[in-house]
């Protein structure tokens, strides 16, 4: 059961979070890559609502079932590009920053594929994703009801 419903969230809070989402979505970062990151953060943070949401969003972008079902073990497959692997490694390190540092090697791998601005936006996106999962898990939003906006 939800502890706090979407309608009970203080006025302005969701709007401000959505302004950040809009900024990230309007950046030069690829939407499918962003959704891969979002799903991976949701998996790490064990957020059922967010996993449902980003699975559906990824499917909507045309992502394959094989890649979605193996995302949690991406580093054991050959289904992801070097660019995606660099981002997923960074996503995991930043999400679990209390367990492992974002090493110089991880950061340098990003510079092969992204500009400084894009690395800033990747960092912002991952931070935002972690904010969402913490809110949703605390409030106990119900998984399964999310619908992709066409």
UniProtKB/TrEMBL annotation:
Pfam families: CMD. GO terms for molecular function: peroxiredoxin activity. Keywords: Oxidoreductase, Peroxidase. Coiled coil: none annotated. The keyword Oxidoreductase applies. Residues 15-92 form the Carboxymuconolactone decarboxylase-like domain. This is Alkylhydroperoxidase AhpD family core domain-containing protein. It comes from Flaviramulus basaltis.
């Amino acid at each position: 059961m939800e502890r706090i419903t979407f309608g009970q969230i203080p006025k302005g809070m969701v709007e401000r979070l959505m302004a950040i989402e809009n900024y990230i979505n309007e950046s030069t970062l690829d939407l499918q890559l962003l959704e891969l990151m979002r799903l991976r953060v949701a998996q790490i943070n064990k957020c059922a609502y967010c996993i449902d949401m980003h699975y559906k969003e990824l499917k909507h972008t045309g992502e394959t079932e094989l890649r979605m079902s193996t995302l949690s073990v991406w580093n054991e497959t050959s289904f992801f590009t070097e660019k995606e692997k660099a981002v997923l490694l960074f996503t995991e390190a930043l999400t679990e920053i209390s367990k492992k540092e974002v090493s110089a090697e991880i950061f340098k791998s990003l510079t092969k594929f992204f500009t400084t601005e894009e690395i800033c936006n990747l960092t912002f996106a991952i931070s935002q994703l972690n904010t969402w999962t913490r809110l949703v898990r605390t409030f106990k939003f119900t998984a399964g009801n999310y619908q992709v906006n066409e």
